[in-house]
Amino acid sequence: MIDRTFDEYKALFDEHQLDFIPDIDQKSITLYDSMKYSLSAGGKRLRPVLLMAACEFCGGKAEEALPYAGAMEYLHTYSLIHDDMPCMDDDDLRRGMPTNHIIYGEAVATLAGDGLQSAAYEAMQRDMLLYFDNFEALKSRIRAAYEIVKGAGVTGMVAGQIADVEAENKKCSKELLNYIHITKTASMIKAAVRAGARLGGCTDKELEDLTLYAENLGLAFQVCDDILDVEGDQALLGKEVGHDEANSKATYPALYGLEESKKKFRELTDAAKDALADYYDNAELFVDLAEMLYARVY
Amino acid sequence: MIDRTFDEYKALFDEHQLDFIPDIDQKSITLYDSMKYSLSAGGKRLRPVLLMAACEFCGGKAEEALPYAGAMEYLHTYSLIHDDMPCMDDDDLRRGMPTNHIIYGEAVATLAGDGLQSAAYEAMQRDMLLYFDNFEALKSRIRAAYEIVKGAGVTGMVAGQIADVEAENKKCSKELLNYIHITKTASMIKAAVRAGARLGGCTDKELEDLTLYAENLGLAFQVCDDILDVEGDQALLGKEVGHDEANSKATYPALYGLEESKKKFRELTDAAKDALADYYDNAELFVDLAEMLYARVY
């Protein structure tokens, strides 16, 4: 049962966000510092909150889902660090702060990303060792970890990143744009929700409904990102706007126009909310979150 | 019981090396191509062979260890791709072939490395789903995966990489050099052997002895790499020599001199062999492998 607000879940996560990084030797402390720098740079914590909320929605405890919430945020953060590098999007600013490679250089930033990815899997793998006396809980954890690795992997986020890189400066079809958005962004949102549901011991119906919610929310989130890159406020966003157009990126506004994109954004938000219409009393956080993201200006 | 040769294990691995990469959509096929390019570039397969041999040494079946052997090689390959990038070691040649970023560009090479790391964990996580009817086998797999993620992670390989990067162009102590070699190289050799042992259902003594073997072999392997970079044959090595000195890398020859390094190399090789002295009839592959690596010229 969900009885916390988004901010309460976020506060819980923020308190524990570094707990799942193993103790790194002083001789490699730059690795820890650089990972911590990007982790602590004030993200929205959308993925870990979704994971913990989905866990409680299905009857589990948020505290027990923390290693997996950590894994989600570590994976998201690694992807941002690598995505910001000069050979990728070449961004100097992220959440109002200099990007990782600007502070630490490209070699360290590459390794900070690599380290965060491995720390994500290590967090989950270590957690599983604690459930050798509980076969059912162990199976839920394995299923959850599989959702996460799939979402972040070569048929999920990384697939989206490469299609995105390759679509630059080329004519991009609507089908390809949809594929990029689903893999690059929605797959991680979906993974967070499904992993949380698995950890909470979901029913088949809960998993199905939450998946539909997450797919629509994830796509809405990326359409919103595209829109904000056109008409967002750089000071609020904490990053440069107009970057997509300058890089000839495949975006909704570029392919559908701004008005049509906003219409699509509204439809996706409604579809996300509708997916959880059967759970009026328990789904408030998810429904409110969809509207909160709809209203977001950064 | 080990009843195959190194080459037979290698052939088994090579046949299945791509089996554990999920089916990647045609829209992201460059990701698959670039991952496959580096995976298929003719590595020695030291880590997967060690893993499979350790599994059989302890009573398991090599075929059942293949997803974990794949994970080891995927992780090793991702580290090479990132290590070769211009912001790291800036190598154009690897195993006699152009490095990944020379063929595919830096953005794709970054993602090929990221994708291989995630594919490694996905291979193991997917394998675990197949053992939900066998709690003991499942536990061995979780332990094996944990060995691998630790070996490749922020207290293992990635820690070594960052210390290596930071030691460039600086005075490096013998203690730091040892730390770098243990974390950067030996930790993955150790992870391969220990993961295989876990999968094979090792006794405590087997795990302990194999660990000592792997620690010495792993360090010997890196000392050998350092020596070959000084006096190896570029044509045989398939990569440029003199690279460490040009990059002011921390190496054994730089700190101990060439003759002392060779003596150390011999001692480590003997220590590796001695660690398995109690298993005369079953440890031949491991003992021969140590001598084979001692004699290697590439």
Key words describing this protein structure:
homodimer, mainly alpha, Farnesyl Diphosphate Synthase, two-stranded antiparallel sheet, 2 strands, 71% helix
Topology record:
2 copies of one chain form a homodimer.
Chain A: H1 6-16, H2 29-39, H3 46-57, H4 62-84, E1 93-94, E2 97-98, H5 100-104, H6 106-128, H7 135-152, H8 157-167, H9 174-200, H10 204-231, H11 234-237, H12 243-246, H13 252-256, H14 258-275, H15 284-294
Antiparallel strand pairs in A: 1-2
Helix pairs in contact in A: 1-3, 1-4, 2-6, 3-4, 3-9, 4-6, 4-7, 4-9, 6-7, 7-9, 8-9, 9-10, 10-14, 10-15, 14-15
Question: What does this protein look like?
Answer:
By secondary structure, chain A is mainly α. Chain A has a single domain (6-293), classed as Orthogonal Bundle (Farnesyl Diphosphate Synthase), CATH 1.10.600.10. Helix content of chain A is 71%, strand content 1%. The first copy, chain A, contains 15 helices and two strands. Chain A has helices at 6-16, 29-39, 46-57, 62-84, 100-104, 106-128, 135-152, 157-167, 174-200, 204-231, 234-237, 243-246, 252-256, 258-275, 284-294; strands spanning 93-94, 97-98. Chain A has a two-stranded antiparallel ribbon. In chain A, helix 2 (29-39) crosses helix 6 and helix 4 packs antiparallel against helix 6. The longest helix of chain A has 28 residues, at 204-231. Chain A is globular. Chain A starts with 5 loop residues before the first helix and ends with a helix. The model of chain A has no long low-confidence stretch (mean pLDDT 94). At the A-B interface, helix 2, helix 4, helix 6, helix 7 and helix 8 of A face helix 2, helix 4, helix 6, helix 7 and helix 8 of B.
